[in-house]
Design brief:
The structure holds 2 protein chains of 2 kinds. Chain A is α/β, with parallel strands linked by helices. Chain A has 14 helices and 16 strands. The two termini of chain A are 37 Å apart. Chain B has a single domain, classed as ABC transporter involved in vitamin B12 uptake, BtuC (Orthogonal Bundle), CATH 1.10.3470. The longest helix of chain B has 38 residues. The chains are: A alpha/beta, B mainly alpha.
Chain lengths: 393, 333
């Protein structure tokens, strides 16, 4: 905490005499708000990649990378836009890692990034709507779209022989998009959705929501919400009243905090989170732990988002978003030498020599369609009070 | 049998949670109404006061737990309540000394107080996050349930379970005790009477020799105690997270205004009106109707739960239109 504060203070004081080779990256995540338990690790992971590049001295004749944080709040578009506006116009960041939640990401993209021509790579915005949105080729994400997550969850439900589900979702772009995707996919497989109801975040009391869900019934309850917020409240309420025993937890609900808070009652619930069993994931895990970060959901994606920006800059030989935006795909996908976490220096050198890289990173990044991750998911099973990996899909 | 099933269902999802939530709102609204009655402004920092008191309780609870103290089936936090109340009293008196007293000397209008209280809210907010952090804190211990849904089913042979959590029981009992104590204080003691006099007519009270600083101090102390207890009960029942205490401010204000700002009876009634309308209007009646002999495929839900907020505010608007002083004409202790 002290260190972060000092770093923050230092960055604010030292902004004025920016040196020519100083690359500034904005890190806009919801440091306050519904996913505030995840964002410190996410930001630290992104900054880990930046530090790695700075130390290597391999980025464009030894440029250093300075992260500048901004608070997206996850839910308040106006506050997020203001934070991004400050980073882009006052701090003059070259690109943005973020934002985190789909709604604020859309707002920042449309109001700030496109207006100023700044590249954004989001580690965790997963709304399907972002796939088709007009973005001047400035927007990418290292997280897959929820259109894909809906399929994966429907597959899991089918495998488990679930016939009827109730869905509750957090009332925003992320929740709505994901709930619709799950509903469509599950119905296509012959399942029945008894109710699909929204819940608001940030309330302590979810009795009314749990009541409605319980009356509708179903084999399992799909909770497309946030683990620090309504999602947890709903699960606690449903367990207390005996309304549901088993829960399906999409990515926003995966985090160590949830099983810890709910306890053994959550055992047997299952979910999905973007992830791979690739070598990169293990390497990143170890790197993060060595750096004093306890990696949680979307930490690896954050590292990859920062790494992709810097590799693309190197490939383009420019820190100008309008130039390097065309190279993000090149560095993320084949052909080229595969680059794992911790090998950013190697990747930068290859690029400097005119070679090609295929950034694999911590999450086996493969950009598809409008610049989003193809979508590898880890199937989570809550067992013995912990999130365990059942398999990869 | 069918009727009993329907009753158990209603009890589990409507009545028990409604009463608990109502008690929590009522205690919060009492604090708002006390400050409004004495200092004549809407104290927006009340939610954060609840969070601050609760935070002190949590820290003391952890201390007690590490010493191995426990209350058996009851949460240890109850034992830590006095510490939290003292901390909250200290904080509020300091705030009054350095913020509100200045405006009192200036004879500022209520709206200035209100804005100042918003500033105070942000400071508390930061203070709380600085001390305990923004994350969820679990501090309830002891046994979790009085009756579990499954046990109830086995006991009665009904299809529907009824769960009553220990925290729900404690909330109701503590609220009843607290409300009785508060009314006894306001109606029977000298200090309470002087508060009511001050609230009714400030000038007249001053003329009869009531010390305004003392009245204000007592009001803050009572508010701190109510806020800490309300916050702790809420935190025990759900979980402690600073963010939710900011959010609960809205229904608490709705409860206080519906009941009539300045009226303690109104605050309690308002709490229950808001709690039951939030849950009742958005309740899906299908299963209950099924037990009563009307099978249907529709959910029989009057309003989707999305409109839960809207319900309390619709009631607020109706009350303000029809009876602007609230259900129990406000500003009379």
């Amino acid at each position: 905490m002290k260190k972060t504060l000092m770093a923050l203070a230092a960055t604010t004081i030292l902004v004025s005499p920016a040196m020519a080779e100083d690359v500034k990256l904005g890190v806009i995540l919801g440091f306050t708000g519904p996913i505030e338990s995840l964002t410190p690790a996410m930001a630290a992971s992104a900054e880990l990649a930046m530090a790695e590049v700075s130390e290597s001295g391999a980025l464009m004749d030894g440029a250093t990378v300075t992260p500048i944080r901004g608070d997206s709040t996850c839910v308040d578009s106006a506050a997020a836009t203001a934070a991004a506006e400050r980073l882009v116009t006052a701090e003059k960041v070259h690109a943005i890692v973020g934002a985190d939640c789909s709604g604020v990401t859309t707002a920042i993209l449309q109001n700030v990034a496109m207006a100023n021509g700044v590249v954004m790579i989001s580690p965790s915005a997963t709304s399907p709507a972002l796939s088709d949105m007009e973005d001047d080729d400035l927007f990418f994400r290292t997280a897959p779209s929820d259109a894909r997550q809906g399929q994966v969850i429907a597959d899991i439900l089918e495998d488990k022989g679930v016939k009827e589900i109730a869905i509750t979702f957090t009332n925003n772009d992320y929740g709505k998009g994901l709930a619709e995707s799950i509903e469509t996919n599950f119905k296509d497989r012959g399942g029945k959705v008894t109710i699909s109801a929204a819940h608001e975040d940030g309330k302590g009391d979810y009795t009314a929501e749990v009541g409605a869900l319980a009356q509708a019934g179903g084999d399992v309850l799909v909770v497309a919400g946030y683990l620090d917020q309504g999602g947890k409240g709903i699960i606690q309420g449903a367990l207390d009243t005996g309304a549901f025993d088993t829960f399906v937890l999409p990515d926003g609900m995966i985090g160590d905090a949830l099983p810890k808070a709910i306890g053994s009652d959550l055992d047997g619930s299952y979910g999905t989170v973007p992830g791979t069993d690739s070598e990169g994931a293990d390497i990143f895990d170890k790197m993060a732990k060595d750096a004093g970060i306890s990696p949680d959901a979307f930490s690896a994606e954050s590292y990859d988002a920062a790494a992709l920006i810097l590799l693309a800059m190197q490939k383009a030989g420019s820190t100008d978003s309008k130039v390097f935006r065309d190279h993000v795909f090149d560095v993320a996908n084949a052909p080229g030498e595969e680059i794992l976490p911790g090998e950013l220096a190697k990747g930068l050198k290859i690029l400097a020599e005119g070679g090609d890289v295929n950034y694999v990173g911590a999450t086996a990044v493969e950009l598809v369609r409008g610049g989003e991750s193809a979508g590898n998911y880890r199937e989570i099973l809550v067992d013995g009070g912990e999130n365990t990996t059942a398999k990869f899909r | 049998m069918e009727t009993l099933n329907a009753l158990a269902l209603l009890g589990n999802f409507l009545i028990v949670p409604g009463i608990t939530y109502g008690c929590q709102l009522a205690l919060g609204a009492l604090g708002i109404t006390l400050i409004y009655g004495i200092l004549r402004f809407s104290n927006f920092a009340h939610g954060e006061t609840m969070a601050f008191g609760t935070m002190a309780v949590i820290l003391a609870t952890w201390g007690l737990q590490s010493l191995g103290v426990s209350l058996g089936p009851l949460p240890t936090a109850l034992l830590a309540l006095p510490v939290g109340i003292m901390a909250a009293i200290g904080l509020l008196l300091l705030t009054d000394r350095y913020v509100y007293r200045f405006y009192r000397r200036q004879r500022s209008t209520p709206v200035i107080y209100l804005i100042a209280s918003i500033g105070v809210m942000f400071i508390y907010n930061g203070l709380i996050r600085f001390i305990i952090g923004p994350n969820d804190q679990q501090f309830s211990d002891g046994s979790r349930f009085i009756i579990k849904a499954r046990e109830f089913k086995q006991m009665t042979g009904l299809n529907e379970g009824l769960a009553i959590k220990t925290t729900q029981g404690i909330t109701v009992v503590v609220t009843i005790i607290l409300v009785i104590a508060l009314f006894w204080f306001l109606n029977r003691t000298r200090a309470g009477k002087s508060m009511r006099a001050y609230s009714d007519n400030e000038d007249l009270a001053l003329l009869s020799g009531i010390d305004p600083d003392r009245v204000v101090m007592i009001a803050w102390c009572l508010t701190a105690a109510l806020a800490t207890i309300a916050g702790t009960l809420y935190g025990l029942d759900k979980s402690f997270k600073p963010f939710t205490y900011l959010q609960i401010l809205l229904p608490i204000f709705a409860a206080a205004i519906v009941g009539g700002l300045g009226s303690p009876v109104g605050a309690i009634a308002g709490g229950f009106v808001i709690a039951f309308s939030e849950i009742g209007v958005t309740f899906a009646w299908r299963k209950v109707a099924g037990y009563m002999g009307y099978e249907t495929d529709s959910l029989m839900q009057l309003l989707s739960t999305d409109y839960k907020f809207a319900v309390s505010f619709a009631i607020l608007v109706i009350v303000l239109l029809v009876k602007p002083t609230g259900l129990f004409a406000g500003k009379s202790f």
